[in-house]
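From the pipeline queue, job 12 of 40. The input is one protein chain; the requested action is below.

Action: predict structure.
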Amino acid sequence: MCQKNQRIRLGVNIDHVATLRNARGTFYPDPLKIASILEHFEVDGITAHLREDRRHIVDLDIANLVNKINKPINLEMAATTEMQSIALNFIPHAVCLVPERREERTTEGGLDIVSEEGRLKSFIKPLLEANIRVSIFVSANIYQIEAASRIGASVVELNTGTFCDLFLQNNFEEYNNELDQLKKAAKHAKNLGLEVHGGHGLTYDNVKFIATIPEIRELNIGHFLISESISVGISSAVSKMRTEIDKAQISFKGS
């Protein structure tokens, strides 16, 4: 059985609670209320993505989460001056830098650190000085991971979205190839001294594969859990996901 201190942490992204709220322009459902509920379950952190267009989470949500929730708050954001200012104002536990395009439905692919290495190193410097943990959302690409290490990030979050899409298509050969790339990337990142997280597109069915990657320390899951919660409630959805992650870890360590 896996040691308690090696258990993969589970972060829940609550963006789409705000999506539902904003669809009608009401004050409900409130992301803060959901985060307050999650505080009492087996959740290790709360993630929220403050987008440039404020399509779901808004500034007040971030203020409420940081000031009223005792779990670590992970602020996903683009590497812009505006977002840097907001992070330095609220001081969340962590920020995760992600690529962002206005026309995309959700984050597509990892951040290209290599082409902006100098700018990103300068960008994260004041965040690190404010004791904010900096994570970078990256594809399973060795060069991007090495660049993340060079600029001073302490965490990389591997984009599991490509694997999840291929899994959904039942493309066995390709999703196994992508899984192999994720495993190699995770191992390389850990060897560089980076903490390894994973996220994007994870469900009960596919999380068992990612949870067997021994270097993974945290998984951040949002859209699927919020969707499931409409049918079964947020506590049941999170509890089942926690069980699937634990089962995968135990099975892998026992094999």
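Job complete. The first strand starts at residue 9 and ends at 13.
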